[in-house]
Amino acid sequence: MLTLFLAPSRMASNTLKDLNTLPVTEKMSECKPSLTKPCVGKTNGKAEDRPLPSSAAVLDPSVVETEKPEAEKAAVEVEYIESENLDDVDDADAVLKTVVAGLDSKDWVSVCDALNNVRRLSIFHKEAMLHLLEKVIPLVVKSLKNPRSAVCKTACMTSADIFSAYNNDITDLLDSLLTQLLLKSSQDKRFVCEAAEKALTSMTKYVSPTLLLPKLQPCLKNRNPRIRAKASLCFSRSVPRLGVEGIKEYGIDKLVQAAASQLTDQLPESREAARTVLLELQSVYEKAHPIIKDETSSPSSLPEEEQTPEAVTWKVFCQSKLSALSAQAVLRVTSVVAVPAREGLVTAGSSSSSQL
């Protein structure tokens, strides 16, 4: 009985030995490749057909290169054309009818083409595209969120041309566009950041500071320190464009409070931008409120009811509008630079209104 049970096991071991002695080519003879039905194997428990690569593809690597997807081929065709080098569209009416659909396309190359068409329409057919801005700008914002860097950069360039062409006409549509540009300028690939910064510079150049500053002020409190830094730079570029009269109308106290909040920010870019704004505001304030330097009638010696606004110094003004710590920080920053050095900062864009 024992031999009956051992016989099968001996047979199995002999069979395994025979298999092990076979050449590799004979072992694979049972799984011959076929043009119509390749060998079936299992991967992760699933049976799936795995066609063998053709000998031509193995021997000639150029065969593989010719089988790249169309989108990869088109990647080299995407060009970043500067605004001054853009040509007019051949048929403006036809492009106007298709540009919105192109911006909403799932093909990223088509989106880039549509974005460049928006740029051309903004430059050469400004009035014709004005009625489409409500549809175009949200799609430009969508492109700014696109994971492809080529689409992001083209969208940044499009934003710059839109600011240049439409100025204050896009103020009501600016919020989402501004947020994305601040984000892209602070945390993306370098060439995308540079394009976003150019768009923000175009925004501060062409959009009225009176309309832009209320949009920027909430960004100064953003939780992302890099966004705050970029917003601070935009803020510092916009304030001088107000001019002396514009600063008075907007409210110098509001501007001082906004700038003071950035003096203790995490990033040095924010602090330096705030310092620049505060020096500007101090110079404007002191020109608008000259101090009477007369020993017989100094402001402190006058009765309270006879003191005029001109008698309020920059120090007193800051202490009255800011918390004690903020006022101390502002005075420490603005007292470092002598008055003659600050005079060059004052309102380069409003020389005609520099005397109040």
Distance between the termini: 122 Å
Protein structure class? mainly alpha
Q: How would the global form be characterised?
A: elongated
Number of helices: 19
Oligomer: single chain
- Could you report the average pLDDT, rounded to the nearest whole number? 78
InterPro entries: ARM-like (IPR011989), ARM-type_fold (IPR016024), CLASP_N_dom (IPR024395), TOG (IPR034085)
Domain TOG: 82-309
Pfam families: CLASP_N
Protein name: TOG domain-containing protein
Describe the structure.
- The protein has 356 residues and is an all-alpha fold.
- It is 62% helix and 2% strand.
- The chain is built from 19 helices and two strands.
- The protein has a two-stranded antiparallel ribbon with strand order 1-2.
- A hairpin with a 2-residue loop joins strand 1 and strand 2 (46-49).
- Helix 11 (174-186) packs across helix 14 (225-250).
- It is elongated.
- Mean pLDDT is 78; it is low at 1-10, 24-68, 71-76, 293-307, 338-344 and 346-356.
